[in-house]
Amino acid sequence: MPRRAGRIEFETDEGTVVQYDRHANGGGYVSPHAHVADDAQVDPGAYVEAGAVVGPRARLGTGSWVERDARVGARAVLGRNVHVAAGTVVGDGARVGSNVRFGAGVVVQERAVVGADEIVAAGSVVSGRRGHLRGAAA
Fold first, then answer.
1. In the structure, what pLDDT confidence band is assigned to residue 56 with cuts at 50, 70 and 90?
2. pLDDT value at position 93?
3. Domains delineated in the chain
4. Strand partners, 78
5. Global pTM?
6. Whether pLDDT at 129 is above 70
């Protein structure tokens, strides 16, 4: 059953008011300044910040957070409680397990797989080979 659309507002610790709309597919929260494909799935409790992009048929699990200027490609799947830091790119068709934390500026290549509970250091590259990291140490 689709969730009812609606806008919510929060005040940050710095006093800035941020707004989110519920995404039609899943009911997660999307900034009005983010671009999320209509057929993407944004599960309850997931957040997509301003400037982020989520591609067609991508799926964000419950509690996941996509920060400003991050990109989640088409058909990418993020498990529960995944943190995609600012400037990180998750390639088309990539699979990311639950509780993964990406540092800023990480590149996850197309169809790469990242297992659950991984912490990927800022600036790392995850290749299409299962969980293979290049660049910064994890």
1. very high
2. 97
3. 7-131 (2.160.10.10)
4. 60, 96
5. 0.88
6. no
Q: Token pair 């990180």 is at which residue?
A: 88
Which helix or strand (DSSP H or E) is residue 43 part of?
none
Residue spans of beta strands (DSSP E) within the chain: 7-11, 17-22, 29-30, 35-36, 41-42, 47-48, 53-54, 59-60, 65-66, 71-72, 77-78, 83-84, 89-90, 95-96, 101-102, 107-108, 113-114, 119-120, 125-126, 133-134
Helix (H, G, I), strand (E, B) or coil at 86: coil
How far is C-alpha 87 from the chain's CA centre? Answer: 11
Residue with tokens 């509970």: 117
CB contact at 8 A, 82 and 88? no
pLDDT of residue 138: 43
